[in-house]
Amino acid sequence: MTTNPSVITPAVGQKEGQRIPIGEWLIENLIRLAGLSTIVIVVLIFLFLVREGGPAFLDIPLRQLFGSRWYPIEGIFGLLPLLVGSLIVTVGAVTIAVPLGLICAIYLGEIAPTWQREILKPLIEMLAGIPSIVLGFLGWVVLAPLIQNAGAATGLTAFTGAIILAYMSLPTIISISEDALYAVPKEYRDGALAIGATQWQTIWRVVLPAARSGIVIAVMLGIGRAIGETMAVMMVTGNAANIPTLSSGLIFEPVRTMTATIAAEMGEVAQGSLHYNTLFGIGIVLFVITFAINSLAGRIVGTRGARRTGGKL
Amino acid sequence: MNRQQTNRFAVAVITSVAILVVVPIVLVILFVLYNGIGVINWEFISTAPRNGMREGGIWPALLGTIFLTFGTAIISFPLAIGAAIYLSEYAADNRMTRMVRLAIVNLAGIPSIVYGLFGLGAFVLFMQFGTSILAGSLTLGILTLPVVISTAEEAISSVPQQFRTVSLSLGATRWQTIRHQVLPHALPGILTGVILGLGRAAGETAPILFTVAAFYLPDLPQSIFDQTMALPYHLYVISTQVPGMPLDIQYGTALVLLLIVLSLTLVATFVRTSMRRRREW
């Protein structure tokens, strides 16, 4: 996604004033239009969310909106339990997925021989391809009973969701941190090994620090992936819209995320009702969170790319 | 522990964690295969669910997913490939281009349920398509844009610059160069993106919840303005909403969905690998 070197400079092919056939003129403009349409679509998504969800932020008193009770039937819409639910599940997932994903990327990039890499990388792509509903289904029929047997009051907990989500965000974290490791110049490794460092010292002291910004991006995009996941989370987290009491067993209680709330309740609300508006309002919150994460990650990619080419001899 | 021992220890730990990550992927696929293969036969594929979905097959859901995947293709690909050509061949390094790239990164990050909300607000209600195959395909089409754009752009950009220079120096116009020199060479890569996009569309549930998916609809859709059942939503319904649902039908449905999506992913990977092998520059 860096700036493309292959852009055709018109000066090479077309003299100034050369006539372009009308058909080509049309095609070229359609292509430009297709490119610009991506911006239009993002803006449209936001506008439609605001159109349907905006009234929620105007009609519900802020005190209530940030309150800790989500009882749509009584007309009480406090978003706090849903925010906390999403937070717990996402933090849990990231805590599991980041170390695993990073170590897996180190293995793929630094240790595994080529033949292993050629088997493992398609496998991880397959994991990325498994539909979330299938993983949710397995979480529901296999993982939840296991967790209940292990002593939890119910198998449908934030922890169950975190495990499933961790697995779903692994491919993102692995592939982006592997790219980051790959971008570290080979000379760094050669230099470290030449002065007598072991492979582990090279990885820990040289390669990882050099790949730092890419790893930060991997973590951020992993968080973005986890916070937006819907179906699997809805099936395994128990969907209880209350804030778990702050204790060590916090993660073993049922929670309800923002995404699951939209998915579970939108089918039953009257269009135009306050409940309907509020569900779109949750959509706005999700949009803003993921937009911030992705824009920030995109910005880091930009500066990193510039630095890398700037430093190249 | 001296540093050689530390090194051996660290490498061993890294290797075992990698195994810990990868083995469950294989296990998950084999597990669904083992539990689901038993119910899969021609009747399961080709008949509608019966008796409150506790018997019978998945045909309407399977067909619905096929319709939706084709609909997604029609909506997404012209736009995505156009955008990829724009980014690779036309876009100058300016503010506008950076905004397009930012938009694509963000499209990729928007949660699928938010696409569902957008589809409901924009296509189902505002454009009054109703809950329909059209609304669902439009929603899924937009959802798949970033995957297809970035894969296709990578493929187009990887065509060597000399091809363009030579073509232009022989007097070809910019579009002739793209059409006859760049796109043919980029085709396998573009195809990879297209197939990956289809796989994504076939497996998504959240975007179709409010835009097209029907809980139970044994009759097949008659037009693009009809609702349809779809495989991912059907799996959700039979595993959580139908009490007393036989487990083997659930596994069978999950297996069919998994096979569709994974075979698309595999084909995409295969196309890309064979392209890399064949390429001579």
Number of helices of chain A: 13
Mean pLDDT of chain A: 83
Number of beta-strand segments of chain A: 2
Oligomer: heterodimer
Alpha-carbon distance between the two ends of chain B: 49 Å
| Class from secondary-structure proportions of chain A | mainly alpha
Biggest chain pair interface: A-B, 103 and 111 residues
Name of the top-level CATH class of chain A: Mainly Alpha
Biggest sheet layout of chain A: 2 strands, antiparallel
> Kindly, what is the distance between the CA atoms of the first and last residues of chain A, rounded to a whole number of angstroms?
21 Å
How big a fraction of the residues of chain A is strand?
Answer: under 5%
Element-level helix/strand string of chain B: HHEEHHHHHHHH
Named CATH topology of chain A: MetI-like fold
Q: What portion of the residues of chain B fall into strands of 2 or more residues? A: under 5%
Describe, in plain words, how this protein is organized in 3D.
The complex is a heterodimer of chains A (313) and B (281). By secondary structure, chain A is mainly α. Chain A has one domain: MetI-like fold (Orthogonal Bundle), CATH 1.10.3720.10. Chain A has 13 helices and two strands, in the order H-H-H-E-E-H-H-H-H-H-H-H-H-H-H. The C terminus of chain A is likely disordered. Chain B has 281 residues and is mainly α. Chain B has one domain: MetI-like (MetI-like fold). In chain B, a hairpin with a 4-residue loop joins strand 1 and strand 2. In chain B, helix 3 packs parallel to helix 6 and helix 6 crosses helix 8. The longest helix of chain B has 34 residues. Chains A and B meet through helix 1, helix 2, helix 4, helix 5 and helix 6 of A and helix 1, helix 3, helix 4, helix 5 and helix 6 of B.
